[in-house]
């Protein structure tokens, strides 16, 4: 059903009387009853209503509009027109109000405004409209002695009042002269008859502070030596009464100014002259306690330490401390902070069982018994609740907040660690960027780029330098495990690291050792000419742990396909493939350089004539026979080389011998059969 306005009531807020200072309200109170098309009161709730003001009952021009939610209770609603869009109409003509509910068409008829809104015109009053009869008695100020009654002007003696239009002239009339013949004794004055030679004297203490105008007493008013103590009332002379630089010592008799004559706080330090005093002297009472005198400072600036420092000190003679076998305490805010014991121990107090030495060291520690030791500029500066940490060096363990059990020694060591724990970093920049845990780094820039990796151990300058998020690596030696990233790797020897990124469980032992894949152990470099020991290498071969055992080893047919050869090894080319000459200098820069010892070893090795097989040919022979021969190690990627396990050739050789033996035995049997014929 379409709602309609059944009843409309319009009222206007009372205007404030002080319209000239506060302005007339720009809203109109409006109240109505909202019913549906059947004449029933609508349900309680909020309704969207649009109000418009026109200059005609129908048609006309829309002069103002606003839309708002109105709350309807039992069909009745109230609102203020102009609370959303201010009404600026002058209300000097007839206006009609149009109303629409919920986006519907405007209700008819429009509502004409009654006279109340037009009271806004009270802002202006026509000329000559206010007469005496219009003003209520007592509403206009008409008296100088209150706000009521009439004002009567009465001329006193020797005065006349002359009105002229809007002007009122008050004049003094002429009076006769007279002679003062007597002054009675009063406050500050001694009375007596006045004659042609008589004087009026001022009693002692007669002039008080209140009797003098500011700056009224000048030097010209005072005869030298005429001011005595009796002439001054206690506290009567203040700085405002005396013109600057007016009174000099000549104006006073000796002892004229006493303590009682000087207002407290009047004499400042700069008002006191030296009067013969010299440096490092003080004012003290004489032995008879009758006067102040100057004397040497026996316990002051000459022997004490000034807050701004001392000059002319003698080491061993001048010091800060005690001379009575007692500890020396240093306090802040009257709380003991540092104590130097009689044994020379430096103790700190109220630091949460922690020690902080250096500007900014432990600056944010919450001092809740964290038991940290931070030594150095900004060492452990951001630590809050982390405990059992030790950091020594410029900004060591700087970013740590809640990490525990860390040790950082060296410039910027463990700088970025925040929550990592149980890390040990010894050396400049060691573990600088890590937030991981359980890492150990010793020497310059070890584990430098590690961020979240854990359980890594690096010992040697630049060792494990590029490890970031990888875990469980161990590197010992200059630049060991450098350049590349890997996990579960072990590298022992300078420049020992994998030949490519991403390997796991690899090991390089020796100078320039370069593992070429995961789960591989590389011993030595390409220049090595001998690897050995007293006994042979052993391989696990326990039958309890062998599965899928088959007797499908190829023998003579495989051996007969092999091509034994002699050859020389291109050692320098293998070295280049393995990047053995890639080094890091002392400044951390990557360079390529050949060690002279390596160069000679490679040349010697290239001259050696070796016997063996070509790995690719062995692989082909096995493939042609469908034989899975484990003696060939195939490259897993472009970073690997073919290799042979020569010990694996024993198995097909044994098989070949067994096959040969069967042939021999068959031939023997045949020979014996022929011989018996």
TrEMBL record:
Name of the molecule in the record: Peptidase S74 domain-containing protein
Native species? Ignavibacterium album (strain DSM 19864 / JCM 16511 / NBRC 101810 / Mat9-16)
Its domain of life? Bacteria
Domain Peptidase S74 intervals: 541-671
Q: Pfam family example for this protein? A: Peptidase_S74
Q: InterPro entries, per this entry? A: S74_ICA (IPR030392)
UniProt-listed PROSITE patterns: ICA
